[in-house]
Amino acid sequence: MVTANLQYLQNPFPRPSFSPKRLVSRDPKIVFRCGCSNSSNISVGEDVFSLTSSSTCDVDYLGQSTKGDLNLNLQHLETFGLDGQDTLEGPIEQVARVEAEEAGGLLRELGITSPSAARLSSRGIFCSRTLNLRSISAIGYDMDYTLIHYNVMAWEGRAYDYCMENLKNMGFPVEGLAFDPDLVIRGLVIDKQKGNLVKADRFGYVKRAMHGTKMLSTQDVSEIYGRELVDLRKESQWEFLNTLFSVSEAVAYMQMVDRLDDGAIPADLAPLDYKGLYKAVGKALFRAHVEGQLKSEIMSKPELFVEPDPELPLALLDQKEAGKKLLLITNSDYQYTDKMMRHSFNRFLPNDMGWRDLFDIVIVSARKPEFFQMSHPLYEVVTGEGLMRPCFKARTGCLYSGGSAQMVENSLNIHGDEILYVGDHIYTDVSQSKVHLRWRTALICRELEEEYNALILSRGHRANVIELINQKEVLGDLFNQLRLALQRRSKGRPAQTLAATNMDDRELTESMQKLLIVMQRLDEKIAPLLEADGELFNKRWGFLSRAGLWDKSHLMRQIEKYADIYTSRVSNFLNYTPFMYFRSQEQTLAHDSYSHYCSEQNGILTNKE
């Protein structure tokens, strides 16, 4: 894959179909001004370009910093056949249209995937808040499920096994239970008071629920949660499944809820309610992590648990060569981090590079989210065995344990929105770095690839459901008007119109009866279709990002609120270059139907003319 970076500009590909001379104007001139006087020169080609520095940058019309933008030096305009009063041939709208067409053609000639095409794929990077990647000075990365992707069945399966073994040693009945990763998905919420697992929409209304391992009916959901919203601030009741690491715990808990309901848990374990059971399962899983058996097994056979991505190290290499400071900030300890990174990175890097060569600062045992919230002592890791010594300031090229995000900012002299942090955990990685430090944020969610493809395969199904719902809406509009007409007539009042008032009683009643029968039959057809919506992704819970046919899930609301961009894997940055300007899409609103009205009115006016 060819990537655009500063090195590429030193030896550009020939472009026989394009000549800069063509841009010389013989017509009225449009002035094109460069802000080169406020920029620092960079040695590319023959000093043709200058780079906008942090001290001279401005903000553009979308409110994004212009830091990192390239400008054309005035003294080199003659290279392009221009005379210093930079001119273009014709109106800029026409010039831009032609150049955009030629740019697309050149990308195809070079065999480079355009970002616009990448956005329309499961490997796209999706933008919630406009982000100019050129203005980013440092990019920080989480490791687990971000730079390192685990086979969920293998990793979470073993975590589940260790959890169940610990529960068994505590006296819990676990015989006959097995890990079922399809039982839960990321973004669900555990109701620790009721032993339920729920899926909520963006407002917190529960749309689907499961008690133990049994899905609840729509009627049950309405009765239990009809007057209650999911509020993640009530940590005593709700536990949000932020990451794939939550899968093993949630599966174990829901299975143990069944055992508690069946009376299979011995009374001598103390009177257990659903909240107490959740604590017991959490304790058993925590022991599996703390005692180190799980990570020791993974370190001994990483090939069984880790799914390396050959393109990922190259994406980071592009960013580093573009002048970004790269940071690794992980809660994992040094030995585990080094083993996983060596396995996943070193063989894919050029010129005998190692994974450490990519990063300006590496911080292990970071204790996120506290890393973003408060200050902890910083230690430098000085030996391969992990021996450490206290220090007070991080230096480039070194490895550290603990510390804080503020220490990182001070050490690099880079602050706030100049830093992009990339992680898979909505709270620990994305929310806290944004709320406390105003860092820009990117969320990694591998399931997006499967969901994107499932949504494409479900287009026919969803279109059929929408058509049926629209038909019922039209029928319902007529039924409601006839019902109102009948109501008014029964009170001796005229109906809405003269025609409705003069309508025969028998005709009115028969029309309403027929409409009611049709709508009831439609309901019988629509209900199971709605229930099946999203089953190509998960039969129980449907799509990750949806809650119902049209609304967003609570997970999607969290992503939009805290993640400026989101994507399925870090290597997707390869298709976008380190200089990408991510622009958020227009957000549709309930009253946006005015555009449909305007187009209809334009059609009427055209016909009259």
Automatic annotation (TrEMBL):
Gene3D superfamilies given in the database record: HAD superfamily/HAD-like
Coiled-coil blocks: none
InterPro entries tied to this protein: HAD-like_sf (IPR036412), HAD-SF_hydro_IG_5-nucl (IPR008380), HAD_sf (IPR023214)
Alphabetical keyword list: Hydrolase, Magnesium, Metal-binding
Xref: SUPFAM superfamilies: HAD-like
Pfam families the record matches: 5_nucleotid (PF05761)
UniProt name for this protein: 5'-nucleotidase
Family to which the UniProt record says this protein belongs: Belongs to the 5'(3')-deoxyribonucleotidase family.
Stored CDD domains: HAD_cN-II (cd07522)
